[in-house]
Amino acid sequence: MITVGSRWTGLLLLWVLLSAAHGADVSRPNVLLIVADDMGFSDAGCYGGEIATPNLDALAKNGLRFAQFYNTARCWPSRASILTGFYAQQVRRDAVPGVASGSNGTRPSWAKLLPEMLNPIGYRSYHSGKWHVDGKPLENGFIHSYALNDHDRYFAPQYHTEDDKPLPPVASGSGYYATTAIADYAIKWLKDHAEHHAGKPFFEFLAFTSPHFPVQAPAVDIDRYRDRYRDGWDQMREERWQRMRGMGLGGDRLSAIEREVGPPYANPEAMKKLGTNELNRPLPWSELNSTQRAYQTQKMAIHGAMVDRMDREIGRVLTQIRSMGALENTLVIFLSDNGASAEIMVRGDGHDPEAACGSGATFLSIGPGWASLANTPFRRHKTWVHEGGISTPCIMSWPQGIKARGELRQTPGHVIDLVPTILEIVGSKFPKQWNGEPVPLPPGKSLVPLLTRDAPISRDPIWWLHEGNRALRQDQWKIVAAGKESAWELFDLSTDRSETRNLASTNPEKVRELSEQWSRQTAEYNALARQSSPATNGPYTSSFFINTTPDGANLPPSAKVMEFPLLVRLHGDFFNFSQSKNQGEDIRFTTATGQTLRYQIEEWDPTNSSASIWVRIPTIHGNTRQQINMHWGSADAVSESNGNAVFNESNGYLSVLHLNGLLKDEVGSLVPKNVGSTPAVGVIGQARHLDGNQGIFGGDQVLNYPTGANPHSTEAWFRAAKPNGRVLAWGNEHSQGKVVMHYRSPPHVEMECYFSSANVSSRSAVPLGEWVHVVHTYQKGDSRIYINGDLDGVSTQISAPLSIKSPARLWIGGWYDHYDFSGDIDEVRVSKVARSADWIRLQFENQKPFQTLVGPLQSSGILFAVSPAQATVLEGERMTFTATADGAQKYYWILKDDGGQRVVAADRLKFTFDAGRVSKSRVLTLQLKAIYADEIKTKDIPITIQEDIPDPDFSLIAPTSWDGRSPIEIRPQITNLEKMKRKGAGDIKVTWSVGDIAVIKEEQLGRLLLKRSQNSGKLRVTATLENGGNPSTKSVVIQVTEPKHDEWITRRPTKNEKPVDNQFYARNDKNHGILHYTGVLSELVDSVFLKIYKNGHLLETQTSRMAEDRSYSFSANLEPGLIHYSIEFGSKRDGIETVRETATNVVCGDAYLIQGQSNAVATDWGEEKPSYHSEWIRTFGSMSGSSDRHTAKSANPFAVVGGFLLSPICRNGVGLTLDQV
Predict the structure, then answer these.
(1) How far apart are CA 177 and CA 160, in angstroms?
(2) Residues 1091-1121: tens digit of each pLDDT
(3) Structure pTM?
(4) Is there a domain that residue 1053 lies in?
(5) How far apart are alpha carbons 782 and 835 in whole angstroms?
(6) Banded model confidence at residue 988, pLDDT cuts 50, 70, 90
(7) Cys-Cys with 553: which of 51, 194, 522, 845 at CB 3.0–4.6 Å?
(8) Between vectors from CA 665 to CA 664 and to CA 669, what angle results, nearest 5°?
(9) Chain centre distance of CA 807
(10) Same domain flag for 156 and 256
(11) What is the C-alpha separation between 922 and 916, in angstroms, rounded?
């Protein structure tokens, strides 16, 4: 084996000889690193494939092919390893339990990418193509970059950047093709390099998206392969295998196609869209019918065309380097990020089955049959860690540095070896530290010895773990398992590279030995991912405490909550914001034992000395106090704030929307769009305000939300301005497929589990104008609702469980384009688990304004004091109290008054007391309560409030008589207004009430407007004025004389009038109710339709073409009686009907005006439930006198129902029916 010293000597001698021969400073070689996406092990011609790849073949002929080179089985973990030299788990780019990691994980600050290692030694680094690494290219050492972030559209990408700046979306039909564009940008960077930086070496990272699904290619390329694959995967796989054997590739056995192994992720909706010719299992080709064969043949032709085109573009890049005179001294490396994929899905712009296969209007995948061909001769595919998922072609060519031509290397290698190999070739070493921060030893090994000869390299066993699939290779032995619960298989790859003979039962000792080694390496790599970096923690450290004892959140001792997102609120009373960076980039969190904790800064506001931060806590136990350390003050620190590190599927989250200014889903399932909502002050940082026709659209292609009757949780904070609105809704319109959070009247919350029997309502009243936290949990047989941390409703008699389909939709504030919630909403979350009662209790106790779970940062010292120790305050004035509570883990300000007490502030060392108004002088107590490690301390401060402001003195100005139809005005005249102002009185609150006769009224500033009455007689109007002291009340009596008859008024529908669930229509004088359905569509369709169902049976279908302005209008007569109607509105396009909106439980009946209150309000005395209730009979009003007065009266009373004015007719002498006007 060549030693490190001899390798270095050889490379240095090579550079000296080259410099002398060419009379120039050739020095370090250029590096071109080419990565294909989802290309199979044997697709290239030089690896046995039938696809034309002359440029790759030429590189192999003039360099080396590696026969046993490995990746990580998936895109983003491989790219992390390719560019860092570490396993993806070590740098948090694949899942690590208890750590924010995976595809959205953020690398530790020491885990730099290859360009940052090359730039200090004179390299200029360029990137073109796929990225899929955390951060942005220019932030990670690249000087120029073209990043194609839209992997679903080869012809018209919507998301791509140049030098980290967004580029406009590409229009369809523009001639753009991703593979060509990636090469174009690479050539652009190389030309610029040749013109301006010819004396420097370059590193070009050329990352194609091809041949990743969707398989799309120019028609001219597809034509070359149109008939190539007619023989099918079974025969062509055998033919490939024979060619590979002649090349010395792939071992001695061809594995059998695993007929029952399909895509790694089930996607039934995609299969429906793709039709019966699509196959999710690799059936024998002979069992396919002729149309299936033709369809499958076309797909593989497109795959071949994509690989072919990629090879041509590689050729263009090589030609550019050759034209620069640099190809001889350029190290070219080619490989694939994982094996060919068996996935089948539809994303992007969807799939048009009528479009030409391979065009931008289609979304096809090669599927498990052709993936078995692409991965010949191995088992399984992308995501699995059997050989088919992890084996990659690997070609290395460097004319000046590699003398071997066309040779094979059988020594195993892995993508973690690329960085050490490149660094050694260019004359550098793997860094031991970055900016004083130690860098761990990488697991990758330099493959420089293999450039000379094929010989073993001393290394740790090669390790794999992805989505529960796991493997380990040590020398020729490999253990592998598919899935977390599967048993280990054992293979001797020296004789069975294709993993056809499982030796686990005959050699259990080897299985035990290798499995223990796999566990050791797993623990080591996970531990590295969890490590904090002391160098970036900063000079300042303090602690706060999570308190679940009765003095805190009061969780029972048996409780245990895992991976909990803890809200930490910072304030200037206990944190000096001037010691930290402007946006908190330097803050870090660790456990008491030093374990790094992932966090996200939601709000950082040094101006107002406040911050809101989410910290992921591995475990919280009941009845304990747990120390968490916070560090800050490092001037060189870079932010590690990452929402996806705190909220992701590993702790159950599918969507988390903080609803601040960014409107971002921290998990990444949604791309929310704002529909008119505006910023508001929330429970945690900012929230969103909705005014009844505004909301947030989360998306209608959400693929990872729960399906069927799988468990889930839905939650939100909201503050409602009025009842009868939808806070949020997700799912779809399929039967039993939607979850809706309603705020109903009378004020309560109902969770509607659409068309299932899992609906559940809160038992407690949920008041208007107050923030409330609502959580709904569902699992088969159990539906629960929690209000402010407490269980408030249970439904366990679920005969018809949910049956949610995919993809799901999500709206906040309504459903579809019908937004009806009025108020503020904050912190919306959807989870794939039914959260426990302990979890929900902790959430509320942690997030409520005066939270009990977490305290402030602990200060040093022993002083506990308050100033002033007592106070006298005039009413209407304020006074600030200042406390010192050194060493306390938590403190509260508590106001004690009239035998009760309430918390008025928490975790504040200053409290401003507002004396407000009093009716007479009084004394109350302000208490500071501090919780210490072993005791509770209190300080009581007596406060005297002295009365000083007069109460309002006024009279009412009003007419003495009224006809009940012409509007009249009543207003208070205040006689001591100037005196109150001089004494500092605040705003005067006016409360109006109208008695004895129902009226339509409008309260305006400083007056009451009466618009119409419902009867004749004496009408009493009362006004109560208060400015914080004693209320003052005055009344006036008005004599009302109505006209004897009112005319019916024809109701005209609005431009956007639609029924909602539970809509009531009153019958009119024609003995029916009139349903109107009007609106405007945002897109062109062939026609629109309205279907009306009567007691579940289709009653009527109306169809119409839209007007030129895309408006539509339907109307229908509804028969009154014991009938439930349901409504479907939809559109028809290309012969396909799509239901867009629905309304259920629509009824038509009588509206009566009787003595007593009902579910609508005609006067001021509030709502009461009548002793008899029917959804077909609605009653209104509060009349004085007996009911006989109603039937004897021929005048027309009125009322208001759900915002509609109702006008009456007399019917059968039994009260007065009302109709919508």
Answers:
(1) 13
(2) 999 999 999 999 999 888 899 999 999 998 8
(3) 0.50
(4) no
(5) 12
(6) confident
(7) 845
(8) 140
(9) 15
(10) yes
(11) 12
